Structure formats: structure tokens, C-alpha cells
Amino acid sequence: MFPLKNILHYLCRVNTSSLLWYNSDADFDKLYPERIQRLSDRHWTPIDVARKAAAFLANAPGKRVLDIGSGVGKFCLIGAHFFPLVSFYGIEQREELYRHAVDAQVATHIKNAMFLHGNLTQTDLSSYDNFYFYNSFFENLDERDPIDNQFDYSISRYLYYSRYLFNALERRPAGTRLVFYHSLGDEVPSAYQLVDASDDMLLRMYIKR
Ligand SMILES: C[S@@+](CC[C@H](N)C(=O)[O-])C[C@H]1O[C@@H](n2cnc3c(N)ncnc32)[C@H](O)[C@@H]1O
Predict the structure, then answer these.
(1) Which of 46, 71, 107, 167 has the most CB atoms lying inside 10 A of its own CB?
(2) Ligand 1, residues 51, 93, 140, 141: which to mutate, most atoms within 8 A of Cβ?
(3) CA 142 centroid distance within chain
């Protein structure tokens, strides 16, 4: 039997250390190896953006939010931390990034996030209520600072994925919420009404009519 004093000390330590991840992007990115940290500015959602986006998508307890192209899981883990009554899921095509997401989840003790390794085109969007999208297909148009070189990027690949997502979003019911960050907007069907945006319009929030 552990004395109660030791158990309380342990719980405080876990709580305090897990809260420290959310102080700044630099702190959060320490969950990942250095190569992944260096990609953060360009490829992973900043904490304040993730928090705002998650607040909009977590509109009721029990909602299921999918990050389409979840990278190392930054959006999902931040959303899950601040909105514990909502489940955050991420689908990611790169196995290495998926593994980093799972490792970060273990380190942060987050229970309401889940990561899947695979392609968006193998994912049934009808299992989710709301969606987050950080311009995941843009790597096919702009080859500067790539995450890695494991895919053949091309305009036709961009168009194929954008059209696929557009069609899948069009089939979702009225009330579906969508957040797009840094996106060209090619994937947003006209039934989705813009209801809020950041001043620079990089973060846009939609609800399907
Ligand atoms: C800009 S990063 C955003 C990562 C994460 N959503 C975040 O905000 O921190 C886009 C990610 O989408 C992934 N991705 C691109 N196309 C995909 C596809 N068809 N299926 C699954 N993941 C994809 C990329 O591998 C990359 O990790």
C-alpha cells in the first residue's frame, strides 16, 4: 500500500507536468524529435489556432471531430486537452508521423484522442460529426520545405484529393461544422456557410445549411 501523501504527490506531478506542454508552441513541440520540431512552423497547427478551431468544432458533448491529415497529432491533442467531453480523431497517411502522434498521446496522458494510419480516401467520413483541415493537399502544389520525399507530388494528385474531400463533405448532413486553416477553399461545397473567420481569413469556420 502506498501512503496517501505519496499518491497525491504523484498526481500533482503528473498534472503539473502535463499542463506545461500547453504553455507555448515551443513547449508543445518538445514532445517530438528535433526533425519534427523544425517542421512545426510550416506544417503543424499553432496552439492558439488549434484551441479556437477546436472550440468551434466541439459544439456539444460526445461530438466526434476528425482532423483530415493529422500529421503528428498536434491539433487533436490540443483539442482533446481543452475539450475533454469531445473525441478527436486523426487520419494520417505517413506512418512515421502517425507513430509520433501516438507517442505524444502517451506522453500527454490524453484519453479522448485516437490516431489512424491511412489515407483520407480509405476513411468513412460518416463516422464523424465535424472536420478540421489544415491545407493537407497543398504539398502537391508547393514542394518547398516538404515533410519528406516519400510521395510523388503532382497537380493531378492535388485535384484528385480535393475533389474527393469536396464530394465527401457534400454528403454530410446539415449542421456539420468545418474549420479550414490556410486552405485555398477548393474543398468547401457551397452548402457550407462561412460563419466566422480570423481577421487575416486564414482560419475559416463553416456550418452546413
Ligand atoms: C499541414 S499538415 C497538418 C497536420 C495537422 N493537421 C496539424 O494541424 O498539426 C498536413 C498533413 O496531411 C497529411 N496528408 C496529406 N494528404 C493526405 C491524405 N490524402 N490522407 C491522409 N493524410 C494526408 C500529410 O501527410 C500531413 O501530415
Answers:
(1) 71
(2) 93
(3) 21
Ligand 1 pocket: which of 92, 97, 138, 166 to mutate (most atoms within 8 A of CB):
92
DSSP 125: G
Q: Give the containing element (helix H, strand E) for 132.
A: strand 130-133
C-beta separation of 57 from 134 below 8 A:
no
Position 57, amino acid: L
What are the cell numbers at 4?
A: 496517501
Question: Where do the structural domains in the chain lie, given as residue ranges?
Answer: 21-208
The set of cell numbers assigned to 53 is: 478551431
CATH level 2 (architecture), domain 21-208: 3-Layer(aba) Sandwich (3.40)
Q: Whose C-alpha lies nearest to ligand 1, atom 4?
A: 71
